[in-house]
Amino acid sequence: MYRYDDLDRQMLTDRSNEFRHQAARRLSGEITEDQFKPLRLMNGLYLQLHAYMLRVAIPFGTLSTAQLRRLAWVATTYDKGYGHFTTRTNVQLHWIKLRDAPDILDALAEVGLHAIQTSGNCIRNVTADPYAGATADEVDDPRVWAEAIREWSTVHPEFSYLPRKFKIAVTAAEKDRAAIRSYDIGLHLRRTRDGELSFEVMAGGGQGRTPYLAKTIREHLPASRLLSYLDAILRVYNRAGRRDNIHKARIKILVNSLGVEEFARQVEAEWAQIEAAEVDLPDTELARIRAAFQPQVFDPQPAVSPVFEAAKAADPEFARFARRNVHPHKVPGYAILDISLKAPGETPGDASSAQMETVADLADAYSQGEVRVNYTQNLVLPHVKLADVPAVYARLKEARLATANIDLITDIIACPGLDYCTLANARAIPVAQAIAKRFADPERAEAIGELGIKISGCINACGHHHLGAIGILGVDKKGEEYYQLSLGGSAGADAELARILGPAMSGQSIPDAIETLVETYLAHRQDGERFLDTVRRTGLQPFKEAVYAVAD
Amino acid sequence: MKVLTANSLTTGEVVFWNAGRWAVAFNDGQRFDGDEDAAGALTAAEDQPRMVVAPYLIDVEDMDGHWVPVAYRERLRALGPSNHPQHGKQADGDADVQALAAVTSSARSTGRIKLIRR
Amino acid sequence: MPSLIKLDAGSDQPRALTVQDAFVFVHDEEPIPAACDIVVTLSRLSSEGDDLLASGRRVGVRLQPSEAVEDLAYDLPRLAVVQLVFAKFRDGRPYSSARVLRERLAYQGEVRAVGDVLREQAMHMVRCGFDAFEPADGSSPEQWVAAAYRYRHVYQRAADEREPIHVERAQIASGLGHNRPDEVGA
Ligand code: SF4
Predict the structure, then answer these.
(1) Which residues in A lie closer than 8 A to residue C153 (C-beta atoms)?
(2) Which of A117, A136, A511, B2 is least buried, going by the fewest C-beta atoms within 10 A?
(3) Using CA atoms, how far apart are residues A272 and A268, in angstroms rounded to an integer?
């Protein structure tokens, strides 16, 4: 995996020195809160309900074990001993003091971690397929390109004060595990018929108040031309994006007001005038980055592991874990192993320092020292020998990390909501906890099958409610926490936005409503249909009738 | 009645105004009867940009003999997050905090709260 | 009246000086003063530019963030200064304007940052081709330069001379080492 070299690390040191300087000027009264706020935000430091929150970037969701251990240490030393993994594959520390922040940034910089551009109207942390480098269905490691974007976008002189935040995601696999169409720019890498790497470039996706799926603005972009093309998109956006209304400032509004053809035309016109050779990385630099993501050496293993098969036969709980959390690897005899941070009753996405240490130990022992963060708020061990899965499982179980619920009804995405977030309308975490408890029986959850519930505490949609098979949005109705249900969303290759089911309901009635939705689905389900398929086939009507008949 | 609140600049902790100083516990905050006194305190607080960030006034009411913030958001600020009862001010768990917590959870079902109104 | 800071192009170390501002900005409703160097708005430049430029003085223009530098192309070689207004420091449009001026329109004259011009954005401005600044925060030239060159490396090419980090890497790899001014004092 990519490790920062001396120059990258000097960048991080310079950055944290700069922030130390800025924080000192704020504390001494030399600059006002108004001037300081964007500076701290660009270093990931928010002021939330109870304390400052530090959002640390995990570029393309890849963590070394040294980095994960350092996060655990920071969480213990400066916070309350846990971290919250988010849908942006960042990790948030919720109890930070401003006066500690410069020291924390230094401690993170030592292992190549940082909070650069995790907030503010700039190019944010680049995300990628969490199975990159491990899955058989990719044409290239998307992180090569994500790292190129990471470097290009870091402290960009021209694009640090955009109309609004800007997010880019990359995938190189047919199955989209990075939700790329919900991004300002989604990049899908494929091979052309001549074997050349080429990006489909999509722009104008985003969630929030006005959700849009990104639209294709260029079918085939030679991969080596990526950065100059991004330059062109960003310049068009920086100059033409709206700045008079925060709700209309994202690129999705520009793309949709100009129309996708006109937007694409402007980008092409700008691109034609950019001195691309100045921007696009030379082959030598691309080769250097590529070398950092060279596939690891995998000891040859038998495709079928007797140890693994025996464990499945002996222990039904392990067999369930193997069905839900263990996925095929590109190398025979290896597996990609999902670690659920959704134990029923826990806060979705939270991991204690001790749990982080456990995962780091396991990654060192069994996964070539690599951990991934999935936007579903789970962790991934990308390279585990099938024969080692039972041992990994045993350790995970001790650490309460072996919940076998990936993609099931209890694998709920939830933003921090009103428990932490200053922008929230309602809490999200307790709703997730109540649903997870209701469906805690793993057998039942598995019988219900794939069902993504996604909860946001406000219209900003950090909990991806627009993309949930069941989306739940917290609203404020005459001072009470109310929740609006929507159905039929998904983030993957079949991306679609969920549609609102009906009037919002109180928090207490949500578990019953979910129960009703599930029963309705089971009553209508045809062979092998997922919840999402049934909703898409039948439409909302039967679900609406069932939920609101009960409510009346 | 109103109470003046803010977050401490250096620590981010929720604080409450009392006669020119900032207290950590909600119950140690000064309650203002008149709008004028409250506004005067707010102006004074805004003059302390090196102590606190974004001071503002919140409405409080007497419920069953205890002063509580009207807005649910403010109750969470005065207590701590509901998913981690051991985090935040609620961790200290003295009588005032317990009363506030009890009132907060019982009030939730009565609709007698404002979620985010300050 | 903010003071005017100019980058010192003649020095090989990054340096800046406080200079006397020779230009007077003339609002649209004001008459053009006699015999002094002036800066006018884009609309005045369009309507009266030829007369002004013929009057034997130096003339500059002040552009609002929404005004396109491309509209200056014809007059550009005759303009002594282009002032780009930062309406708010958060409004990043002037960065693009400055780069287009320098890199695409090859403008050689002074590009000056006016308006909500703060030290924290000094690096972005310098990298995008600004060489003159009217800081709204009272920064001294030394503070300005220290902020502008706080980073030893940059990841992209822009309108300045700095080479991106991958060029430094290639030089290190080929044994040439890298030549850069050492970090300028804080
Ligand atoms: S969706 Fe709203 S409540 Fe949830 S984290 Fe985002 S801004 Fe906060």
Answers:
(1) 7, 10-11, 14
(2) A136
(3) 6
